[in-house]
Structure formats: structure tokens, C-alpha cells
Task: inverse folding
């Protein structure tokens, strides 16, 4: 039976790549379409970064004394962990990351590779992000937020922790709220191929890692980053229990420091015919206290984000296959959009249990008069979405207009 790795970013649309046993590359996670040659190893100059005055002016965070328990550690650092919602031209994906400055977030390269739009979210809201540096061979990336964030800023260990050290992963598995899994360092100095070439000095851990954990911190109990979560192990199609991998923290720190000294940001991938101006960012608010309300908000966010940047394939993949067929396929559906794009989204109520939910939302759109209802250039919609959980993500199964036609803004 062949051996492979599965990168632990959660892919919500598009086909996932597989690899032959001989290449031992990523299987079933985080597809990329980047045609550029692989980035250089971390020992070579990484791809460019734009320096930020906010980050440069911030003093290095200090550590509190070692907490008495893991709950103490989590309570102290959890404000610095963010969730990524990333749109490419062909798919959407989620992942995790962590603050190292007020507007600097470390994550895994495969979370943000080929990004057309990047959104970073916490329970109190979300901001747009831009990729400042990326090294796909080392599976590391640095992202700058559009505005500074208040939250814990992490420090890195200066060497790998000894074999047997207790560690824990913080992140957003399967698009769920922030989660914690504990384990130990079960291997050191591993050599792993994530698809672009072999990486040495990888940490192996038996902490449970799932899709969506990618880019999150692997912590020691004092709250320092031992590694950046990257992948879990597959034996053919069967997941190997207790075998997950993280890029060494000191390697991530060196790359991030170098990226901060460079001056060339990465341009987002252009999907063509994007109707929204700028980066397509729109505000999202979630007012429901349903336990799946944030996840429903993220699913709708990815749909609207895809529309705004012209990534219609990614947006279309947020529909169930049954609903896709009623639209007559991707081309027929996207032609109906015309110049319309999303300006704001509010999830007001989520109801239901299990794998079938309904969500009431208020959505604002902008469009040319010929593409708007009743000739509107700005429309306020009241929409009720039906959503279905497919085992990996919430998909839109239907929508209705309980209050009738939209009102002009």
C-alpha cells in the first residue's frame, strides 16, 4: 500500500491532487495551480515581503512564567490564533495561522498559495490579508493584515524540543471553532516531501491534526511555537494514526524575519472579470448564537468572496451538486451575475440541527442598472438559505426571498 501525506488545509472546492507512492507528495488536500517554479529552500532568499511600520515599532512580546496547566496556556495565547478563508480561481480553502506582530501572521504556504483573496477571521470579526512571503518548498508563508489586530503575539523556540516533550496544536479543524489537541513530540529530524521537494528537520507529533489545522502553532506548554502545523500521514487511503508533521519553529522565525526586510509584495492571482473594485473585501457580521453560525457565515463568505474576485468556479462549488444542475452549469450561472458583487453580509439567524440548517441573512449587493432587480444599482436583500453539511463543509442547497424583492439601498 502506498504512502503519502495529506496537507492539513481544508479544501472546500475543486479536485484534490494525489501522488504516486514514489513521490510521497500531498494527497487529498490543498490543490494548487501555480505554474511558477517552486520557491527556494528557506536557506535561500524567500519570495518578497513589504515591511510594515506597525510591526517594526512593536516591542518583542514577553512571556509570562510557565502556566500551571494547558488551559492557562490556551487562555493566554488563543487571541493570537486566526482562521484563514482563502479563494483561488478554482477552489476555496480554510486554514489557521498565528500572530507574530500586530499585522503579521505566519501560516503554511499551501493555505495561501495561488490566492486571489485572503480573509483572516476571529470571533470578533475579519480583515483582508495579503501574502508577503511564501516558500512552498518549506511550506511557510507570511501574511500581512489590512489593519492591525489586538491579540497575543507568539514567540518561537530557538531549537526543536526534545523527543517526548508535551506539545499541543491550536487551530480551526474542518472549519470548526478554535480547537485544541494535545500530544507529544514523537519524532525529530524527519525528512518529508510536501510536493515541491524534500524538507529536512521536520517535527513529528502524535497530536491529532485535521484538515484546517494547517498553519496553526504547535506549542510547548510555556506558549512558545515549536512548529508550524503542516500535514498528516496517509497510508494509501487510510490515515496513519498519530503521525502528523510541523515545520520547525526556528526555521519559520528565520524566514519571517527575512521576509520583513524585503520590499516586494506578492500580487493576488487574477481570475478575470472581477466585478468588485479593489480586493473584493466586504464586511461580515454573525448575530446568531447557534453553534454553527460562524461556520455558516464562513461558507457564505467564501461564496461571496469568489463572486467578488471573479473566481466563479470557486463560488459555484459552494452549491450542492443538485443546485448546480438547476442553474444549468457554471457558465449559465455566472452569466446571470453580470456586474453584481457583494458589499456586506449579516447572518441574523441560524436554525436546525444535524446536517441540515437554514440561515436568514441580510445581503447588500451593487451592480449596473441592467443587472439589478428593478433597475437597482444597490440592493438590500433578505435571503433564507438552506445549507447541507457534506462531511467537509456547509454547502448552499437552496435559497428563497421570504420578504420578497430587494429594496434599493
Result:
Amino acid at each position: 500500500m502506498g504512502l503519502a501525506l495529506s496537507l492539513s488545509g481544508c479544501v472546500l472546492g475543486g479536485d484534490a491532487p494525489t501522488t504516486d507512492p514514489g513521490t510521497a507528495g500531498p494527497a487529498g488536500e490543498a490543490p494548487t495551480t501555480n505554474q511558477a517554479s517552486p520557491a527556494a529552500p528557506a536557506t535561500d532568499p524567500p519570495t518578497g515581503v513589504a515591511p510594515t511600520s506597525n510591526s517594526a515599532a512593536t516591542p518583542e512580546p514577553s512571556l509570562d512564567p510557565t502556566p500551571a496547566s494547558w488551559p492557562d496556556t490556551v487562555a493566554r495565547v488563543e487571541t493570537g490564533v486566526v482562521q484563514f478563508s482563502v479563494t483561488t480561481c478554482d477552489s476555496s480553502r480554510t486554514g489557521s495561522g498565528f500572530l507574530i506582530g500586530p499585522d503579521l501572521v505566519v501560516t503554511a504556504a499551501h493555505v495561501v498559495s495561488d490566492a486571489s483573496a485572503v480573509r483572516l477571521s476571529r470571533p470578533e470579526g475579519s480583515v483582508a490579508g495579503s501574502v508577503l512571503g511564501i516558500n512552498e518548498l518549506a511550506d511557510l508563508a507570511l501574511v500581512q493584515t489590512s489593519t492591525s489586530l489586538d491579540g497575543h503575539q507568539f514567540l518561537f523556540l530557538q531549537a526543536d524540543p526534545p523527543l517526548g516533550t508535551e506539545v499541543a496544536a491550536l487551530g480551526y479543524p474542518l472549519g470548526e471553532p478554535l480547537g485544541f489537541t494535545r500530544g507529544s513530540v514523537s519524532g525529530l529530524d524527519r525528512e518529508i516531501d510536501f510536493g515541491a521537494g524534500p524538507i529536512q528537520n521536520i517535527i513529528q507529533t502524535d497530536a491529532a491534526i485535521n484538515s484546517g489545522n494547517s498553519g496553526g502553532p504547535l506549542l510547548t506548554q510555556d506558549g512558545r511555537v515549536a512548529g508550524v502545523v503542516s500535514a498528516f500521514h496517509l497510508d494509501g487511503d487510510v490515515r496513519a494514526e498519530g503521525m502528523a508533521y510541523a515545520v520547525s519553529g526556528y526555521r519559520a522565525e528565520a524566514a519571517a524575519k527575512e521576509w520583513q526586510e524585503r520590499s516586494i509584495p506578492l500580487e493576488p492571482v487574477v481570475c478575470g472579470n472581477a466585478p468588485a473594485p479593489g480586493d473584493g473585501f466586504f464586511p461580515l457580521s454573525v448575530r446568531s448564537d447557534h453553534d454553527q453560525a460562524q461556520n455558516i457565515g464562513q461558507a457564505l463568505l467564501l461564496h461571496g468572496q469568489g463572486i467578488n474576485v471573479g473566481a466563479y468556479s470557486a463560488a459555484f462549488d459552494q452549491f450542492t451538486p443538485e443546485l448546480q444542475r438547476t442553474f444549468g452549469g457554471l457558465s449559465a450561472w455566472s452569466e446571470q451575475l453580470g456586474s453584481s458583487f457583494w458589499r456586506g453580509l449579516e447572518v441574523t439567524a441560524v436554525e436546525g440541527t444535524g446536517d441540515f440548517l437554514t440561515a436568514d441573512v441580510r445581503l447588500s449587493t451593487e451592480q449596473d442598472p441592467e443587472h439589478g432587480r428593478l433597475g437597482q444599482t444597490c440592493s438590500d436583500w433578505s435571503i433564507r438559505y438552506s445549507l447541507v453539511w457534506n462531511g467537509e463543509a456547509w454547502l448552499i442547497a437552496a435559497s428563497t426571498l421570504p420578504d420578497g424583492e430587494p429594496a434599493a439601498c
